[in-house]
Amino acid sequence: MPVPTIPTPPGLEAIYSTLRKLYPDQPNPLQVTALVKCWLGGPDPLDFISMFGNAGSPMEGIPPHWHYVSSGLSDLHGDGRVHDFTGRDSRSGYGFELTFRLKKQPGESAPPTWPAELLQQLARYVFQTENILCAVDHVSWHAPLDYTPSTMGHYPSSKMSQIQHMLLAEDPQVPTIHTPLGRVEFVQILGVTAEELQAAQHWNCKSVLDLMRKTPPAGGPWLVTDMDRVESIFEIKPKLKEVVTHGIERDGSNLSGVAAKCFWEEFSPTRSFPRPASEDPTLARPGEPSAHDRGSPCGSAVSEIVRTRTLVGAHLRFGYEAAMLLPLAIRGRLRHGRHFTFSSSVSDTTITLVTSNVAGSIADREHPYSACGSWLQLLISDEFLKRLDRDLDDLTRPRDLDLPKEYRWPADGLIITVLPEE
C-alpha cells in the first residue's frame, strides 16, 4: 500500500493489512478514489476501490483475473463522520465491503475501471436505502454490468453482454476481519445471466452458487465473472435444469418477498367490474428495478395488529417483472406452507400471500382477504392454490403473453392483472 503521510485511519488500515497478506507482491495496487469524499459532500460513498492482479489457478478452473475490493461501507475513521461507532464486537458501519473478480482478457495489462463504478452504484443503493447486502442475496440489475456512465457513449449494442444481474457470496480469499471499529465481512459479486438469476429466485441463491462453483466457465471455485460469457450454466450443462427443478420441488424457495410494481384495491363480485387496469396511474409510472429482495412484513408483531377491514374481493395489479414471480410464490413458497410478499417500489402498498400454515397472519379462514391500512393479506386455500397454479402457468412462458392480461376467479373474489413495465 502507498506509504501515507498521515496515519491511516484504523478501519482502513485493517483492510489494507488484510490485503497486504493476500497480495504481498503488490504493496502499491492501483486505486480508484472518490475525488470528494462523501463526508465532504461528494456523491460517491466509497473512499477507495483497490484493484489487484490475481494469477488464479487454471488447473483448478480459476482463471487469471482482476480482484476489486471496496473501502467505505464499513467504518474507516471511527470518529462519526460517516458511520456511528457501536463497539468492537458489533458490525463496523454496514458491516461489510464489496469485492468483485473479473476475468482478465488476453494481453490486458491494467484493470478496467468500470467495476469500480459498479461498486459505487451498489454502495449508493446501500447508503440510500440502508438495505444491507449479504452473501447469498441476489441483485436484479437489468443491464450489462459494464454498462456504466463512463462506457455509455461508446458501448457497442452488438456486443451487449448477457451478464446483467448479480449473485452475492462470501469472498473465497478474504475472511471476515475484526477491526478496532467492529466486524467487517467481504461480500463478493458474481455476474450472472437472467436465467441464472431466475433459478436463484425460484430455488435459493446458495444452491445456484454451488452449481456455478462447479462450472468453471460460469464462475468456478472462486466465482470469477466473465463478461464475454454468452451461455448460462443450463446451456453449458443441460442436466442442471433438472437439478434446479427437483431442488424447487424438494426445498421450495428461500425468497420470501421482493420490491416490485404492485397495487391492490377492493372490489365486490356482486358490483360492477372495476375500471380497466390500463387506467391505473400507480403502475403507469416507470419505477426502479428491484435491486434487492426484501423480507416479508409477516412476523411476531403481526399478532398485535388489529384487523381494520375484511374484503369481499380483491383486484391485484402487478408489473410484468413482479408477475413473473407469481409462479415462484405459488410453487416455491405457498405450496410449501410459506408466505410471499410483494412490496411496492413506488408507494407503501404491500401484498402478502399466505396459507393456513403461516402463523400470525391477519387473514384466516373466516376472513381470507384482510387489510390493515395499505397492507393486504390473502389466505389461499389448498384447493384454490391448485387452480392458481394451473391458471397462471403461462406466466412461466413470458414470451407468449399479450399485455395487459387479466385473470379472473369470480367465485373466489380475485382478479389479477399483469401490466407492461412501461
UniProtKB/TrEMBL annotation:
Residues 42-229 form the Suppressor of fused-like domain. GO terms for cellular component: cytoplasm; nucleus. InterPro entries: SUFU-like_domain (IPR020941), SUFU_C (IPR024314), SUFU_C_sf (IPR038489), SUFU_N (IPR037181), Suppressor_of_fused (IPR007768), Suppressor_of_fused_euk (IPR016591). It holds the Pfam family SUFU_C. SUPFAM superfamilies: Suppressor of Fused, N-terminal domain (SSF103359). Residues 270-299 are annotated as: Disordered. Residues 244-418 form the Suppressor of fused C-terminal domain. One of its GO terms (biological process) is negative regulation of smoothened signaling pathway. This is Suppressor of fused homolog. It comes from Nematostella vectensis (Starlet sea anemone). The lineage of its organism: Eukaryota, Metazoa, Cnidaria, Anthozoa, Hexacorallia.
